[in-house]
Amino acid sequence: MKELSKCVESNEFYFRVPPGQLQYQEAIEDIMELNTDLDSLTYDDGWTIIDSTPEILMRLTPNTLKGRKNWEIIVVIEKTIGDMIVYKAALLDRSTNDKIGLLTSFNNKQYILNEGERAIKSKAFGWWIGHYRMTAPLIFWNELKIRLTQ
Questions:
Q1: Is-contact 148 74, C-beta < 8 A?
Q2: Do residues 24 and 101 lie in contact, with contact meaning Cβ atoms separated by under 8 Å?
Q3: Secondary structure of residue 139 in the 3-state scheme
Q4: How many CB atoms lie within 10 A of CB 112?
Q5: What's this model's pTM, rounded to 2 decimal places?
Q6: 90 close to 27: Cβ distance less than 8 angstroms
Q7: Mean predicted lDDT score pLDDT of the chain
Q8: What is the pLDDT, as a whole number, of residue 21?
Q9: Rg (alpha carbons) of the chain, rounded to whole number
Q10: pLDDT in tens, 29-61
Q11: 28 CB burial (10 A radius; 0-12, 13-18, 19+)
């Protein structure tokens, strides 16, 4: 069983990588082995699972070489913080069908920069992907595992 680690500054969890690294190539088998039976003060922490659309996929796809891959949304959650909209998503790399990208996208570039991180332009105007590891509430990790078994 693989373990999620609790973030110190939020009610979210992360998987395996140190800060500042994007997760484009996570193996489905590793995600399936995650222990999501953890204590959490808030299961969803204000996030909502939403339906995927082509527009949301564009917002989550980096305008980079890796973004040229054929990505498909597995699960996406959304949270509104003031005027800012944030998505956290797991994307399946359709060219391999066994690798997952874990990405967080914002409609506010300055928010990412204020956190001391790099902002990567997405394929949608006005949307940016934070250059950091995925941290997400348990609702995300549980739903991802459920959808991978379907």
A1: yes
A2: yes
A3: helix
A4: 20
A5: 0.87
A6: no
A7: 86
A8: 56
A9: 14
A10: 777 777 777 666 567 888 999 999 999 999 999
A11: middle
